Amino acid sequence: VQLQASGGGLVQAGGSLRLSCKASRMIFSTYVTYVMGWYRQAPGRERELVASITSSGRTNYADSVKGRFIISRDNSKKMVYLQMTSLKPEDTAFYYCNGRSINYDDVWGQGTEVTVSS
Fold first, then answer.
1. How many Å apart are CA 12 and CA 26, to the nearest integer?
2. What is the residue-level pLDDT of the chain in tens, covering all 118 positions?
């Protein structure tokens, strides 16, 4: 597994969680060419993009999380983070770390479960 995600858990509505993803098996020169992102998949729903970030720091967010989630990356550590605040029950899902190459090849981490109780 090239991407290792962690940080999920159970939280009450309005709470916060921080997800982390390490590209442990990806060499640095490759990692910095990848757009990194977080996707999520709720039961019975398709996987959807939550947020993405380029190596230079340009970000993109789903409308549903704008103003609540912040994606960041530390290239020196080959890490990407998702800070989630003001969580809602509808944020409940498995969250997946993703890396996309310049050729649009995807690598995925294992999912980490986020459960938001009302």
1. 35
2. 689 999 999 999 999 999 999 998 888 889 999 999 999 999 999 999 999 999 999 999 999 999 999 999 999 999 999 999 999 999 999 999 999 999 999 999 999 999 999 9
Cβ(118)–Cβ(15) under 8 Å?
Answer: no
- The DSSP result for 31-54, as a single string, is HTTSEEEEEEE-TTS--EEEEEE-
| β-bridge mates for residue 81, sequence order | 20, 72
Q: Taking the CB of residue 94, how many other CB atoms lie within 10 A of it?
A: 18
Q: Are 88 and 20 in contact (CB under 8 A)?
A: no
Q: Are strands 35-41 and 48-53 parallel, antiparallel or unpaired?
A: antiparallel
Q: Contact, 95 vs 114, CB < 8 A?
A: yes
Strands 9-12, 112-117: parallel, antiparallel or unpaired by DSSP? parallel
Q: Are 96 and 3 in contact (CB under 8 A)?
A: no
